[in-house]
Amino acid sequence: MLIDLSERSNQPELMDDFREGLQRLRIVFDDINRVNTILGGNAITVNAVAKLIAENPQPGYTIVDMGCGDGNMLREVAHLCRKQHIEVRLIGIDLNADALQLAEEASHGYPEIEYQHRDILALQQSDLNCDIIINTLTMHHFVNKDLLHFLEKFNELARIGVIINDLHRSRWAYYLFKLFSLIFIKTETAKIDGLISISKGFIKSDLIRYSKSLPNSRHDIQWKWAFRYVWIMEPNRLT
Ligand SMILES: C[S@@+](CC[C@H](N)C(=O)[O-])C[C@H]1O[C@@H](n2cnc3c(N)ncnc32)[C@H](O)[C@@H]1O
What we know:
Strand order of the largest sheet: 3-2-1-4-5-7-6
CATH topology: Rossmann fold
Bound molecules: S-adenosylmethionine
Order of helices and strands: HHEHEHEEHEHHHEE
Number of helices: 8
Structural class: alpha/beta
CATH superfamily: Vaccinia Virus protein VP39
Number of domains: 1
Largest sheet: 7 strands, mixed
Helix content: 40-55%
CATH class: Alpha Beta
CATH architecture: 3-Layer(aba) Sandwich
Oligomer: single chain
């Protein structure tokens, strides 16, 4: 029988309570980063950052990655900004102290990046004024009841815009990922979590429904290969 993905799953991911130590976590993040590189997931966020920067020229930018994991995305954004000679301060926020330790280790040589150990849901507006918020593969970790709170908070914090890059909840994605993971993924954790993540992902009507609860922002929601949605929110306050 085919999997039923008509509703978002509430199943927790193994990574939400990962207790196998730093070395194993590093290998799991290597798997996640390999998938994102091969399937172009990271490029979606980097391109969206480049677009918001091009449309909103200013001397420098503060960009916050909510749920930054091992900081891979921030390092890619750092490369973009270095190439384009853009002054940037990059902040990674994550609840997982081990992930942040890996992020710190991998970010030697990136003085523009700093990390903060915090819960996204507990952030206050006064804590963190920034220009752009990026959020890659983190929104699906949140249950529906917390999502609106999460999105409203991001819209308050980011002066220029918020970029969400997350998974399309689709049977095609689910079964193609099963095949893909046989070849490209080494750890059982990443194989299992990949499938759970897809079942916790979104269909376009979910995102449109959430966007209607944020009427003070302009919304651009696009499907991207491979089974991602990129959702760019731009608060109307700048216009
Ligand atoms: C699937 S990982 C994505 C990591 C990274 N953004 C990427 O694209 O590879 C999701 C991350 O969100 C973090 N996370 C989940 N809930 C969080 C919360 N309430 N506050 C901060 N980080 C959270 C997890 O610790 C994890 O590192």
